[in-house]
Amino acid sequence: MKNYLKEGEPFYMFRMDNGLNFLTQIDITHAALQLQEKKANKEKDSIWNEYKDAIETLLKDYELSVLGSDNINIGKETDDRVCRFCGKTKAGGATFKKVAHAISEALGNKTLKCTEECDQCNARLADVEDNLSVGYLGIRRSILGIKGKGGVKSVGGQNFVLDAKKHQMILSEKTLIEDLGKQLKIKLEGRELFTMQGLYKALVKVVIDLVDGELLRHFRNTIQWINDKLVAEEFPPIRQYYSESIYAQPLIEIYIRQSIDDIEKGPYCFANLFVCDLILQFVVPFVDVDKGMMKSADMVAPYWDKMAVLLSMYNMQSEFIDCSSNEERTAWVELVYDKSDIKQADSSGKVSDNLKMLPPKWTVDNVEFPKFDPAIILSKEMHTIELMDVNDKVEVDEAWAHDTSNNIRSSFILDEEHNKVFIELSIEICNTDNTEHLLSCCVRAEFKIKDLGVVFANENNGQFSILKDFVIYTTVLALIELNRVIQPKFPIINLLKLDAENLCSHYRFGLKE
Prior knowledge:
With 513 residues, this protein is an alpha+beta fold. It has a domain at 362-511: Bacterial Protein-export protein SecB. It contains eleven helices and 22 strands. It has a five-stranded mixed sheet with strand order 16-19-18-17-22, covered by helices on one side. Strand 6 and strand 7 form a beta hairpin. Helix 4 crosses helix 6 and helix 6 (196-210) crosses helix 7 (220-226). The longest helix has 20 residues, at 42-61. It is globular.
């Protein structure tokens, strides 16, 4: 919150890491305020004591770590260090040459690093981190001038471009919500795709990077979830606070329950991430000592007031955000902007010469296509068909014909110029609860189409649509090729039993540039 001090007016500061008990610091501050007022105010005392009691209960039940103000490397730096995410050591093939920022450097983090995140996992999990730093906060970090690697980044959306070097906003007419005279109320719509569950994973990954290594044994299932080897459909929401402060360097408060067994005290671990102009409060899921008691909104609901006690003094607005969805979306921000800082886009809707706008959203069968005819596929070419990470220790019995889980990553790219479609499909096969990995497989296929226009439409409103039957048919062709590689080794596994239509919902669609 903004505070305006008068000249000569005293103010008070205290730190969490100076060795002085937090409650003692509160008492000292309270006493100083009373001396300043010359008399005790009973009403204020009552509020103060109630607030102090709530803090005392929280800090009695939880150990609090506050990180971000000082440079710190979390973890070992010796040759026997173990990666927190894959469990590998240098002897096992992992390398630790790169700097792994516990919070993305794009969000301004210069101080918090993890020495126990290997180079391979650092690269692999970059897509997870992008859900937070690029997809969810990409607009905010540029507007607020957050300096990441290379300084403040320009950003382009579906209806705007912010040029960070020129400090200029270029808008299309679609951004305007209300004309306020010298100012405009506008809605900026992002173009970078992310998922809410991916956002949740990115937040939780920060905690895994920073928590005491001795406690990692309680977060094994959490790490499996971050690694896409554990699947769930329901999660607690995150609580988002709107701050009037800007956090050029992110900070994080991590709370660990003092007693492993006292589940009624609240979640074993929760955290507050101070980033951009937000505070994101979240519960770390899948912790073993929570025994499945903190996995939904209803289960966590009784504890939000307790978790928020240290934030309640600021009287900030907040909202709960559901993070269960894996559906891709884009972020948006509403704000009031001075007209002098805004340049209107021309009538053609052109936003920028050097910051290209990407397709906003894809729809399936949004236009009326002709009936699909497989004959339009002139040729197919399988560039890659391979099995990876085969676990020969797994006993593959009849149960694997039914009790399997499939973690899927896929892309569907259209080349309008050459009438071609490129499919990349990666599938990991595990048992039902994702605790036992069997294998991963990948296919990269290219299809030559007689006329791409009969299955694909670029609509006038900026939307893109594609014929669902065509997507399903080409996906099945790719699955047939994968099956031919898998079945000689694992006859019981049949990828053609997968629901191809549901499989297509995992695709990231795009246009080849």
